[in-house]
Structure prediction request, 388 residues.
Amino acid sequence: MRVFFQKRTIIIDGNSPISNGVTIIALLVIFLSTNTLAFAQSIIIKGQFWGSVIHGDDPPTGQSSFETTLGYIPMLSLASNLSNDRFVDMEWGYRIGKVYAGDYAISNTEEPYRLWMRYSSDQIEARLGLQKIAFGPAMVLRSLAWFDTIDPKDPTGQTDAVEAFRLRVFPTSSLALWLWSINNDQDTLSYGGRAELSTSIGEWGLTYHQDPAEMSQNVGQFPIFISGSHQRAAVDYRYDGYFGFWFEGAGIFADSKQDVELDRFTLFTLGADYTIPVGSGLLIMAETMKINGSSTAVNNSSKHTYTALMASLPINMLHQLMFITQIDWDNSHIYNYLRWGVTYDHFSLNFIFSISPKRGEYDIAKEDLPKTIAGFGTGLQFTLIYNH
Prediction:
């Protein structure tokens, strides 16, 4: 069963990353004071502020039906050209956020958002640090969301990052090769790579990842829990013509056989889109995903099927409407999301209406469900975003 909860920040306990943020800021101050001339060609200070108010009709027991979120990400970018076709740059960002239920704070976040350095030329790109790694053509039901949290329903466009070294090589204009090594919270290195090939009949991708971590983990944005070291392999394809068409196929295989747990998963996403000549162009999209899980040790298996439908219409230069429906066929759950967005200069105003299953409709104890009103019942939300 998948529960389409809206992503929320994590409550910070005594082991908060505040001290890490202070250390990073101090290092940046030292770096700037000693290397400003080297990066004097480009120094950009930017950021994103967001604030939202949501009202829902199915709040957690004893909690207000109103929720307020405030957050800010300051960003610093430095860049310098080494020659006509080579440059180095770096980016730092720190996420600060708080969520209130009525007058009470229920969540607080202070964590690094980005911190990476990069060397780039015409045929190579090497990036080290806390960075975004995302790939695959799917838009909503993403079989290849292995290292990111991209969600088209989130108007801020934010996604979590991973500590990694990523190398991209471009031998020809039609071929790109990726290699990466990722460090997890237990300081265990996983590694993998990807090949992307552009042809006259579409874009192809082939991906492999090996994770030796012994801890149990959730892979991607769906409830795929796997214990111990495992391997991931995937193939994807996208065609853009009179209509768009794509698929993603992935397999996740545990290295050791579990007595009772599922240790083999296959995911397959099939999607298509088409732009209807209405107004500025009405984009319609449909995706279907199937997830099969099995155990090599016992007779245990699972099957899940999901469908997503999306329509997006830019009304003019300022206004845009987006509607998304997600269906969980196995649990008879339907999630509806409607957003009217207004963008003007650096400001984005978003009015959101959503209808989701209520807490009592899940086969999960209410105390184990997220302590937020977002993603449950009927909700009305207003989100203001300021990018500078």
Remarks:
- Residues 1-19 have pLDDT under 50 and may be disordered.
